[in-house]
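Contributing: when you submit paired examples, paste them exactly as shown. First protein:
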Amino acid sequence: MSEQQIKYEELNTGFEFSPSIFKMDSYTVKSYLEATEDRNILYQPDIVPPMAVAALAMMAMSEKFELLPGTVHVSQQLDFMNIVEIDDTLTSYCRVSRKVARGKFQMLTIGIKVLNQRQDNVLAGEIGFILPMN
């Protein structure tokens, strides 16, 4: 059973979401490669595409809070620090870095960090959104 989503209004700078844990199994990676039509032999047979890690981490993050209708993903800055292999278990941590109202819009920046089962950093960065005011 999934957690209840946090309402946008409840988010404040510094708020930390509960961690998300996911496994990069071969089915997930194969599905990602098929969806993106990525045929790079670099990912055969054991290396996970870095953007597959980012996609799953962002999906896990988006399930944690309600995105208002009209929300736009405007930016992302991601650093990939280590190779992820098939069957690695990853833990994603997210924290509100910034929440600011500007006119009829709100800007939300969320910091993200992903560690593997050995506690090695594999991804870090920030993701930016613009949301309409309620």
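Second protein:
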Amino acid sequence: MSQKQNLYVGRAGQVAVMAEFLLRGWNVALPEVDVGEDMLVVKDETGELWRIQVKTATAKPLQTGYFAQFNVSLSQLFGERNPDLVYVFAIRDSEGWGPFVIVSRRQLALEHTSHGVGSISRDDLILRFNVQDSYLRCSDRNFLPYRNDWSRWPVLRH
């Protein structure tokens, strides 16, 4: 995939994630300057704020299911922020978006340090998610609890 096509795919993933937040009733803001997050999600009534980093990949077929690969900057993964960062890994397959793999920076760092999730390449952690209907694994770890886990952002009624 060309670098230009990567930019389009990445932006499409951000817009898909933004649309999901908006449909759930949450306000979304795009930072004018990228200092490590792609969007800010706000609960208007309380001012609660989440920093969101969207990573997007196109699914590649396997004999059963497919896989998607992502790069996460190690400096971002191990750099604490307040409020902390949440990753949304957006996977695009031949039929559309999904699943979204949603995991906090802190939890992903723990998955890496405690369970060896991912592999290091230069300054990045490389994550390869293997996906089937009821199966989501990364480095032989079960990631099903993170599959479409929008529980931090329940649907709001306005």
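If you have annotations for the second protein, write them as plain sentences, like these:
The helical segments are 3-23, 74-77, 105-115.
The chain has three helices and eleven strands.
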